[in-house]
Amino acid sequence: MSYNILVTGGAGYLGSIFVPKLLEAGHKVTVLDNFMFRQTGLAHVCYHPNLSIVRGDVRIEANILPLLKQADIIFPLAALVGAPLCKQDPVGATTTNHDAIFMMLKNLSAEQRLIMPTTNSAYGTGNKDHYCDETSPLNPISQYAQEKVEVEQQLMTHQNAISLRLATVFGMSPRMRLDLLVNDFVYRAAYDRAVTLFESHFKRNYIHVRDVSAAFLHAIEHFDIMKGEIFNVGLSDANLSKLELCQVIQKYVPEFVYLEAQIGKDVDQRNYIVSNAKIEATGFKPAFSLDDGVVELLKGYRMIRNSVYGNV
Fold it and tell me: Which of 152, 166, 116, 99 is nearest to 9 (CA)?
């Protein structure tokens, strides 16, 4: 079945992979983006008659409301993503990540479907020895995670909504981000051959950017059994510490050296392992392993060597 789909922030790291997949699936797609990073990740699909691109700001009602009215399904990807960027612009983060979503929710009809990426960083310093599932207590540390938790709570009051708590995303994208942990460490391995680890035992979960798109498509196709629910989205075999991540990377860059700092703290205090059993029970299965991502990134970094591809 074909839908009219609105993707805010559709030219970003996730969207520039996801939007072409929606078009391939036969949907009509409208992208609203402010192009704050001057990205051109959708250039290769501009030929497509089912794609519309609108330059605008999700915080401005005159931009978003006319587009909302036309949409069967909304994917709110527009956000200032990650703790560093939110710290750099806290007001912009709140108005984009929180206020704009609340405004959008207020203007949705009961029939419209909303599928939203939230974050498993909401688990914060969850118990590193026990899996965090969708019923686990939340302990968001950063502004980004705290506001995502508030948005998710409001999201679940809409009868046709799904929240997908994404693990830390990795992999190549037309709108690349080097500031994500796996992407960052592989870049350091490729060019610096070394990294210093603070609190190397801290663990988190990971997911490939293309598997995020697959999860979004899965939510469209299985909406009736998933609506009204929250799902973790990550690789069940990739609950790894930073030290273990470096060991995976070293298999492909043998000269890569990682040093454990004896003093100092990581500014990101997240430390948890995550269960993805709930979404797997609906039939979703990621296609890309962490090893696949490392190999892919090493190829991609032969093309990239500058700092323009991060959020900060």
Answer: 116
pTM over 0.85: yes
Dist. CA 260–CA 266, nearest whole Å: 12
Note whether 301 and 170 are within 8 A (CB).
no
Name every residue whose Cβ is closer than 8 Å to that of residue 47 and which is 6 or more positions away in sequence. none
Q: Hey, what's the torsion of the CAs at 179, 185, 190, 192, to 10 degrees?
A: 90
Q: Are strands 168-170 and 203-208 parallel, antiparallel or unpaired?
A: parallel
Residue 238 CB partners (closer than 8 Å, separation 6+): 167, 205, 206, 207, 289, 290
Mean pLDDT by 10 residues, the chain (312 residues): 97 98 98 95 97 98 97 97 89 96 96 97 79 94 92 96 98 96 97 94 96 98 98 97 97 96 79 96 98 98 78 64
Query: Whole-angstrom Cα distance, residue 282 to residue 46?
Result: 33
